[in-house]
Amino acid sequence: MNRRITLIGAVLLVAFWAAAAVPAVTAAVRALADRITADRLDRPIDEAVLALEAERRLSVTDRPILELTAQRGRTDDAAERLRQADRSWLDHLTTSASDRTADDLLSRMNGLAELRASVDAGRLDRRETVTAYTDVIAPAGAAPQDTTVGGILALSRSREILAEEDALLAAVSSGRGPTADDRISLTRLAGARRVLFATAGAALPDTAARRHRDVAGSTAMIRLQRIEDRLAVSSDGIPDPSAWSPAFNELNTALWDLQDSATREAADAATPRAVTATVWAGTIGGVGLVALLGLLIAARRTRGAGATTAVTATTVAAGPWHRPGGLLQDLDRRNQGLLQRQMRLLDALARRAGDEETAADLHRAANFGARLRRNVEKGITLTGGVPERQWQRLVPMTDVVRDAAAEISDQDRITTADVASAYLAGTATTDLVHLLAELLENAATFAPADSRIIVDGEHDTAGYLLTVTDAGPGMTDDDLATGHEVMAAPDPPPGGTWWGLWAAGRFAARQDVTVHLHNGYDGGLVAAVRIPPSLVTGRPANGAEPRADLQTVVE
């Protein structure tokens, strides 16, 4: 129940953190991506629009075909630069206004080849040509919004309409002058341009708004509006090119400059907001995540403390031993597997009673039992308990080594011919058997499966020395240092890689035994187990008592 409640609480905490962090991070990414995308695409978009306007005007005048062909090439180059700039990994994060504008413009420019073919074949007259190019440059019906971006779009659209007026005037000037429909179209364009220009002034940033007022009162704007007014009320004739062209060129340049400055000012104003959004997202995401992890760790420690309170009360007298939950779980799983295999084997023995293979099967069953007993006693010892199996008198060292070998699955690979005669104190036998079993199992695990594991034993001035030597790859200097640190540590290391050596270190510490690991001269690893003289003696002569300084043996 406690685990389920903790899990539900963790899920709710993650959900709350995600609800706060995800919108903040998304807004920050979108703000930064919009700024980067605008810097990358605004100039290529303007270049493509300017090239299209120039091509539109040349397409409705009587300029040489070579000049029109050259302009078409410049238009295609501008389209390719825009296409290259529009390819970015940021498109996977966000789609900004600049992205949409570039994509829409490129999509419309894909139809340029068909439009040019219609113009060259004469299938479109000059007025239809102006309309067709205008549809490519800017879609109709785009309504400005009461925002800075909307103001810039309105300003851009008013300038494009001015260029459309110029192209339409160039088209009708090449014929017999504007018709009544042409005058209506020009008057409608002039009215739309003025409305959009006035609307833009109310939404532009401060500095751009002041420049907008300067352009609105400029000489070029006044002269051009007077020409538009005369064209609207006159029933014949066309504007004098010497009056229209200078006013148009000057006003068109001023509008381009105003649009660029307004775009830069808007981008500069958006930068602090993007930075603020990024900092806020980092605060929400980073600090929130740290707080979340802290709460989860605190909850886990609280649960762990509650679970071990009863154990601590019963094991205080046994010394500073700890309950390594993961290790015990691993032992339980091994016990379960060994028990299942032993039960199946015993069942087979019952069915084959009297069979010639019974002896071999009984031997295997005894080995399974010894390994299971080792796991159980190991778990009891490492959690501060005392196994019930105890020796009451001295135990031959050869029996200690043989019992340790019986506790691993590869006991047939153990060679014990060079174990000098000695006797071990009974109270230390269980711990030393389990210590040797851990070292033997490590050796059997890392050495080749067909190699032998040699156990030697000899007396020396510091007591008795047992060595376990394998033919494996040995250990690096770092691993040797780690192995010694693990064996000396009171708490188990994380994971299961070093648990065997940690258990060996705990058994050794209980009896003041030392274990040293080093690489052999001919390869492999040597584990040297030094038993203090208080625990070991030679064979008693004629039943004599052991040495007086030997550790007291339970009688």
What does this structure look like?
It catalyses: ATP + protein L-histidine = ADP + protein N-phospho-L-histidine. The chain crosses the membrane at residues 279-299. With 555 residues, this protein is an alpha+beta fold. The protein has two domains: 1-275, no CATH class; 394-537, Heat Shock Protein 90 (2-Layer Sandwich), CATH 3.30.565.10. 67% of the residues lie in helices and 7% in strands. It is built from 16 helices and eight strands. The protein has helices at residues 2-59, 65-85, 97-109, 112-121, 126-137, 148-173, 180-201, 206-216, 219-233, 241-315, 325-351, 358-382, 397-406, 426-446, 477-488, 499-510, and strands at residues 395-396, 414-419, 423-424, 453-460, 463-469, 514-519, 525-531, 536-537. The strands form two sheets. Strands 2-4-5-7-6 form a five-stranded mixed sheet. The chain has a three-stranded antiparallel sheet with strand order 1-3-8. Helix 1 (2-59) packs across helix 3, helix 1 (2-59) runs antiparallel to helix 10 (241-315) and helix 7 (180-201) packs antiparallel against helix 9. The longest helix has 75 residues, at 241-315. The protein is rod-shaped, with a radius of gyration of 46 Å. The two termini are 49 Å apart. The relative contact order is 0.06.
